[in-house]
Q: What sequence folds into this?
């Protein structure tokens, strides 16, 4: 028997005027890093607040290590939250912030001082004990918030959009920091974010959420390479989407017909009778075919091109009117097609994925 | 020289214009008060030009011998302190209630703020009649009740402003770190609102100190300062009244200045903390 999950949600629903979270069940195994990934309004913050005890679910149970704690207030739960705006205490020093939880627990001053000093060393803030919060940089504040939660050695650490609102350099630095703390302290972490890069680089497991429902649960690799449907696909970067005229099942490959061309596709991993299939492709894996080369799809008319730094985005249209955007390298050696010109494209050796068209609500 | 530059005070002419307007406005605002101060030092000043030798503090010393004035001062201080001591926590409660409300917030705020616009004489008369029905004899207590009604909306507004500066996430964080609701309130909300709570107290005290219309109906045998002044003026302006007005002006300005200086000092001291003062 494996030990019970650090956190388990059992058919949790939260309804305001309408359901925000609908019948969600999930588990966060001990010592793992799980990320709930979803766009704004998908209910991910609501889930975090229900786990933290700040919101009561309308239905369902929340269990910590197998014990039902649905009815407990935040101060009685074995988890700590890093809030999106951190919630640091502006009237206290860095040390007082970090020691606050210990003080509330009645830990004696000598032990408080020792734990606080140790924790500040772990987050590389030695010597900042007497600083005020407003004297710190954004990254330092994040680390104070981390130290303040981790000093209590919580069974689970909850992160609400941990890297949102930071500049790129700081984001990378902090991402490393969180990853390091996770490994060093063996903490169980549940994060919510709308940022796919954050989710991919930090997590053992990703839960993709849309409109209060789980669309997919899997490892970063699974979610990134085998998205369950067109919604998840678009969220993890399969931005090139085509609607086929028809789809034929096969033994090894399936075949789809788009604008009169036969296209070999990966067989679908999930089947959903409520939706038609769509073909999804990574826009950066598409290139323009040489005139002598056998193309995968065409002809397409180039509508416009836009320089994006590393890539050039090509907006094109198929003969059946479908639009397709893809990226070509911005290297000087790669020719950028003129607007209005006719092109053919290649995506071999990649095969398009066939996924249920769940972009619209069923 | 563009019109825009003049309006923005970027030209020397523009700057002069606005300095003059500002100085004039301030002079008009404070002239009556300053005139009163002048007259308190020399009651003849109101009649015209007089030799400066006749300015003296003698009317201020005369105040000290006025037993009725001392009684009124004591009464006003008592009423003011009682009013401020009650209005501050009740105003804070109202602000907390407003923050916690999800429905009817606007109505709640409107009802609280409307009390600012009830005419003093009407409120005083109504309250005096009501308190008589209840069997409460007119005394400093009845005045304090009237002043509580008068100062509450102001106290509530000052608390609301203070509370709006307290981020909900700081309170949530305290709860998250193990504090119960009361502990979080004492450790986080109250310290973060300290400035506003002090302002609320001082504001309520000064409002009570200067209130006359309600006190007129609610006072027992002992008058408050404004009532005493009003009575004294009716029996002919005496030099002591000017001296007394002067005292009120100086004391009010001093109190406000002290509180303000204290708050500013506290703010600027905040970042620098004495070594060893950190309490873990």
A:
């Amino acid at each position: 028997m494996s030990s019970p999950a650090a956190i388990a949600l059992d058919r949790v629903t939260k309804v305001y005027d309408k359901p925000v979270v609908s019948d969600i069940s999930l588990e966060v195994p001990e010592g793992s890093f799980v990320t709930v990934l979803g766009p704004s309004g998908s209910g991910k913050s609501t889930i975090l607040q229900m786990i933290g005890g700040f919101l009561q679910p309308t239905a369902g149970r929340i269990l910590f290590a197998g014990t039902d704690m649905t009815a407990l207030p935040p101060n009685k739960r074995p988890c700590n939250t890093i809030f999106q705006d951190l919630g640091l205490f502006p009237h206290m020093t860095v040390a007082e912030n970090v020691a606050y939880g210990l003080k509330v627990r009645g830990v004696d001053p000598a032990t408080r001082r020792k734990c606080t000093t140790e924790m500040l060393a772990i987050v590389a803030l030695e010597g900042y004990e007497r600083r005020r919060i407003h004297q710190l940089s954004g990254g330092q504040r994040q680390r104070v918030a981390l130290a303040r939660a981790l000093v209590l050695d919580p069974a689970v650490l909850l992160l609400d959009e941990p890297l949102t609102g930071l500049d790129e350099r700081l984001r990378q630095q902090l991402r490393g920091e969180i990853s390091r703390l996770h490994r060093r302290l063996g903490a169980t972490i549940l994060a919510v974010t709308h940022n796919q890069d954050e989710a991919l680089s930090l997590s053992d497991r990703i839960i993709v959420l849309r409109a209060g429902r789980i669309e997919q649960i899997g490892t970063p690799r699974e979610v990134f390479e085998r998205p369950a449907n067109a919604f998840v696909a678009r969220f993890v970067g399969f931005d090139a989407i085509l609607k086929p005229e028809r789809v034929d099942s096969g033994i090894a490959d399936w075949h789809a017909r788009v604008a009169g061309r036969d296209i070999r596709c990966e067989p679908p991993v999930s089947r959903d009778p409520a939706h038609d299939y769509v073909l999804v492709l990574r826009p950066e894996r598409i290139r323009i075919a040489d005139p002598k080369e056998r193309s995968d799809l065409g002809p397409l008319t180039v509508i416009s091109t836009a320089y994006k730094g590393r890539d050039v985005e090509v907006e094109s249209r198929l003969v059946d009117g479908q639009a397709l955007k893809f990226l070509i390298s911005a290297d000087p050696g790669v020719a950028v097609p003129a607007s209005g010109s006719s092109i053919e494209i290649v995506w071999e050796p990649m095969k398009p994925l066939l996924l249920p068209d769940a972009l619209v609500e069923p | 020289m563009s019109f825009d530059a003049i309006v923005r005070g970027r030209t020397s002419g523009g700057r002069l214009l606005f300095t003059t307007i500002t100085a004039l406005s301030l002079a008009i605002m404070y002239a009556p008060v300053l005139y009163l101060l002048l007259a308190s030092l020399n009651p003849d000043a109101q009649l015209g030009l007089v030799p400066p030798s006749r300015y003296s503090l003698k009317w201020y010393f005369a105040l000290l011998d006025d037993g009725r004035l001392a009684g009124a001062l004591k009464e006003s201080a008592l009423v003011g302190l009682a009013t401020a001591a009650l209005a501050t926590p009740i105003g804070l409660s109202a602000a907390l209630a407003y923050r916690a409300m999800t429905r009817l917030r606007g109505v709640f705020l409107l009802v609280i703020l409307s009390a600012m616009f009830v005419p003093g004489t009407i409120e005083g008369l109504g309250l005096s009649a009501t308190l008589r029905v209840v069997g409460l004899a007119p005394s400093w207590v009845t005045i304090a009740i009237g002043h509580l009604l008068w100062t509450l909306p102001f106290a509530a507004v000052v608390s609301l402003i203070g509370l709006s500066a307290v981020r909900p996430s700081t309170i949530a964080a305290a709860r998250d770190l193990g504090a119960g609701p009361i502990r979080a309130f004492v450790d986080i909300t109250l310290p973060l609102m300290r400035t506003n709570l002090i302002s609320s107290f001082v504001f309520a005290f000064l409002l009570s100190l200067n209130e006359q219309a309600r006190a007129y109906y609610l006072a027992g045998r002992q008058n408050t300062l404004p009532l005493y002044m009003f009575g004294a003026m009716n029996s002919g302006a005496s030099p002591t009244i000017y001296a007394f007005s002067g005292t009120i002006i100086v004391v009010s300005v001093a109190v406000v200045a002290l509180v303000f200086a204290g708050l500013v000092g506290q703010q600027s001291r905040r970042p620098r903390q004495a070594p060893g003062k950190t309490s873990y």
